[in-house]
Design brief:
Pathway: Amino-acid biosynthesis; L-alanine biosynthesis. The chain is α/β, with parallel strands linked by helices and 405 residues long. It has helices at residues 20-30, 52-61, 75-87, 103-113, 131-138, 158-164, 187-200, 262-274, 280-291, 296-300, 305-318, 348-359, 385-403; strands spanning 36-37, 98-101, 121-126, 142-149, 155-156, 169-175, 203-207, 232-237, 250-255, 323-324, 333-334, 337-338, 361-362, 364-365, 377-380. The chain has 13 helices and 15 strands. Helix 2 packs antiparallel against helix 9, helix 3 (75-87) packs parallel to helix 9 and helix 4 runs parallel beside helix 5. The structure holds pyridoxal-5'-phosphate.
């Protein structure tokens, strides 16, 4: 029989967070081995329960939420999102500018698909949350990576952004707070990015899904709030701030000079219609979540479980010879560096396999986040303190063997 091949559209599409190393971990689990998973930001499985009112709301609404809704979503949760944009000082957003989706992921793919033609370029951070690079490629565009500077707390290198703009550049992706680095960008940096977008007439794609997962009393500035005259598409959702990844509830907001983007918005509406609507119970949960007590505060405040685990993981990693990590200001991840003099890693996927095989700890290699050198990895600090300390102890032991090879 003729072999059935995947589409050539997928030739450059890569999503290593759920890639071959995870497959290997699954096999090991099937064989009865216990793996410590530091690979994925899935809060609920680590005992971070969603707020009770969201769960109750899902249960209560289920019987009456079996129908399709408007393609952009139900009015009331979209109105709740409008209020949220007002709280975040994003001007001029109406219910019509809000799209609800099955998680932010669906909307990210939609926003790029509606925009890009073959050869169009989108500036994407390195490291990035790899859905962005994958979605640009899948949409026929060309991801062009700008570097985030580890020495400057992983903030974007503005000169690198400027250098990489060409006549084909259509937009800049800003992931703030950042996955995988845990960076939180100061307003000055955001203002500069807005200025670049303004000068070159680029769209800003703002992924702000961790905007309430902030440590040390930090505050978050939405880039769209600084950019009334620049078209911004801002993404957010319940997955992280409300520990509800599985409910697949997200939103996207278009702000700025929408009149100039009528055709693009028509494209967005078309794609939203083609997938009919987001799951209805998830839509209703958005309204409940945004209005209720913001219990994430209890987890990120000093002494809160997430804050404690962040501190522990940072301290333990920084004690390992040749390992350095910038303490995250936000989100659920850190992106430690392995000094290449001590750890001359040629292939960091192989490194992740070996760590898994020898110590049963699952991480994701840095190149999986489009980081150009094989000298970083991403770690999720979600397991409880004992498991986290155990896992980092195993990483330290593995690295000790690695140095002595
Ligand atoms: N954006 C970032 C930066 C993420 O880290 C994730 C998930 O890890 C997503 C988007 C996807 O979110 P959702 O669950 O809403 O699809």
């Amino acid at each position: 029989m003729k072999p059935i091949s995947k589409s050539s559209k997928l030739a450059d599409v890569c999503y290593d967070i759920r890639g071959p190393v995870l497959e290997k971990a699954r096999q090991m689990e099937e064989e009865g081995q216990k793996i410590i998973k530091l690979n994925i930001g899935n809060l609920a499985v680590f005992g971070f329960d969603p707020p009770d009112e969201i769960v109750q709301d899902m249960i209560r609404n289920l019987p009456a939420a079996a129908g399709y809704t408007d393609s952009k979503g139900l009015f009331a949760p979209r109105k709740a999102v409008v209020h949220y944009t007002q709280e975040k000082n994003i001007n001029g957003v109406t219910v019509d500018d809000v799209y609800l989706g099955n998680g932010a992921s669906e909307l990210i793919v939609m926003a790029l698909n509606a925009l890009l033609d073959t050869g169009d370029e989108i500036l994407v951070p390195a490291p990035d949350y790899p859905l962005w690079t994958a979605a640009v490629s899948l949409s026929g565009g060309r991801p062009v990576h700008y570097v985030c500077d580890e020495q400057a707390d992983w903030t974007p290198d503005l000169d690198d952004i400027r250098r990489k703009i060409t006549p084909n550049t259509k937009g800049i992706v800003v992931i703030n707070p950042n996955n995988p680095t845990g960076a939180l960008y100061p307003p000055e940096v955001l203002r500069e990015i807005v200025e670049i977008a303004r000068q070159h007439q680029l769209i800003l794609f703002a992924d702000e899904i961790y905007d309430k997962t902030l440590y040390d009393g930090a505050t978050h500035t939405s880039i769209a709030s600084l950019a009334d005259d620049v078209l911004c598409v801002t993404f957010n959702g319940l997955s992280k701030n409300y520990r509800s990844c599985g409910y697949r509830a997200g939103w996207m907001v278009v702000s700025g000079p929408k009149k100039h983007a009528r055709d693009y918005i028509e494209g967005l509406n078309m794609l939203a219609s083609m997938r009919l609507c987001a799951n209805t119970p998830g839509q209703l949960a958005i309204q409940t979540a945004l209005g209720g007590y913001q219990s994430i505060k209890d987890l990120v405040c000093p002494g809160g479980r997430l804050a404690r685990q962040r501190d522990l993981a940072t301290d333990l990693l920084n004690q390992i010879p040749g390992v350095s990590v910038v303490k995250p200001k936000a989100a659920l991840y850190m992106f430690p560096r392995l000094d290449p003099k001590l750890y001359p890693i040629a292939d960091d996927q192989q490194f992740a396999y070996e760590l898994l095989a020898e110590e049963k700890v699952l991480i994701v290699q840095g190149t999986g986040f489009n980081w150009p050198q094989p000298d970083h990895f991403r770690l999720v600090f979600l397991p409880n303190s004992d498991d986290l300390a155990d896992a980092i102890g195993r990483i330290a032991r593995f690295l000790d063997h690695y140095r002595k090879r």
